[in-house]
Amino acid sequence: MRGLDSAVHRPSSAMFGHDAYPDLITKAAALLQSLAVSHPLIDGNKRLSWLTTDVFLRFNGVELDTDDDSAYDLVVAVASGKPAELDESADVLRTFVPS
Fold first, then answer.
1. Which pLDDT score is estimated for 48?
2. Overall pTM surpassing 0.70 (yes/no)
3. Beta bridge partners of 14
4. Under a CB-based contact definition with an 8 Å cutoff, are residues 92 and 36 in contact?
5. In angstroms, what CA-CA distances link 6 with 13, 64, 73, 96?
6. For helices 45-59 and 68-79, what crossing angle results, to 10°?
7. In the chain, is it the N or the C terminus that has fewer CB atoms within a 10 Å radius of its CB?
8. Using an 8 Å Cβ cutoff, are 35 and 52 in contact?
9. What's the pLDDT score for residue 10?
10. CB contact at 8 A, 45 and 39
11. What's the CATH number where 84 sits?
């Protein structure tokens, strides 16, 4: 369960007194990436990563507006290492936030 613990604490990471992830969506992308890549469970890691990210954002007042296919495409891409940069995943998540 070490991977799960690390993954859920990643969004709150700080370096030299500054948040490692500057905004809520980037924090959510870090959470999504950590859970999808670290495989803390035997099965269901992609489902866990999406559900946890969605709940994290809802708890922080952001409700995503996306279809299942777009969410699936993002999670599969993140789990496979594409996009490689966290900011790219965050940019996709931002498109799911209604204006």
1. 94
2. yes
3. 19
4. no
5. 10, 24, 24, 26
6. 120
7. C
8. yes
9. 84
10. yes
11. 1.20.120.1870
Q: pLDDT at position 8, please?
A: 85
Between CA 82 and CA 33, with CA 52 as vertex, the angle to 5 degrees is 20
Give me the phi and psi of 97, to 5 degrees please: -95, 120
The per-residue pLDDT for range 16-56, each reduced to its tens digit, is 989 999 999 999 999 999 999 988 888 988 999 999 999 99
Q: How many domains does the structure of the chain reveal?
A: 1
- What b-and-e string marks burial along 35-62, b requiring 16 or more CB atoms within 10 Å of the CB? bbbbbbeeeebbebbbebbbebbeeeeb
In terms of residue numbers, what domain contains 51? 2-95
